[in-house]
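Example 3.2
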Amino acid sequence: MLCIHRTSFVKVGLSLLVMIPLVGCVTMPHPFEKKEGSAGGKLTVPPPARLIVPVPTEALLTEKDSAILAQDMVKAMTDQTIPPVVGTAQKGEWLLMMKAQSKDGVVTPQFSVISPDGKVAATRNMMPVSVQDWASGNETILAQVASQTAPMVTDVLKGLEAEVMAKDPHSLKNRPAQIYFKGVTGAPGDGNIVIARQFVTSLKDKSNEIQSKKDKADYIVDCKVSVTDGAAGTRGNPVQHVEIAWHILDKAGKEAGKVMQINDVPAHSLDVYWGDTGSAVGEEAAGGVKRVISNFSGRDDKPLNNGAGKGLLAPPELINNK
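Structure, written as tokens:
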């Protein structure tokens, strides 16, 4: 199984590969496994430094219920790894404004992301609710609306970030990621060499390059192998427990992700030669590292596909409140 976390973690079995995420679920090939693996996780591109969620005044709710909705949105978006806060609209801040409209017995809430210059970056409809349920301020319903809305807000922010990256010739959307590889340590026999050689070969493509100078790299990768005696194994055959940890740091030293490869193998079967096993480990790990970098950097995210609402000035009352 493979999941990616902003600090991603992958278990590979010399038959199991798993990545624990930051954001977005993916499926990856697992040549190190006898069976096809699965993937899960959640990846979020870093949003603005802060996102203010004002208590809505046009949401067709009481003041109390409007405050509950704002708090629910903050909680749901925090679960999405976005750092929002409930507060008054402030000049120069990113805002999440909410309101609602009623028609034919159905209330349709709506959110707009307002950029620091007071323009509407995007507007999206939220989950429709019956007039009766909405007017009652049912806390379960409000929490459900917030929960379903949070991923939509995340997608909008990722799209906005992707727009900026697309216009920046120095961003990873427009050039390969420079990766400084510190090598593999801890493997018995020829494992360090075989794994490292295959990793470098499998990593290099149009989006990723090996950088020989650490200070010019976007990401730094190292790998540590641990082999310990395990249980007796089936039918009394002894086994060893193999753990291979790949750490990916950005140039500021922040952990972008982790790929873990874990499995039990026949005891001492890797003492001298790793052969195809080492090649499979390096190839599989390269795929995991590429995914961590893509998820962490947002280089594969698509620019926001906006409709008519893009770039419009925020309502006068919002600007005046600033």
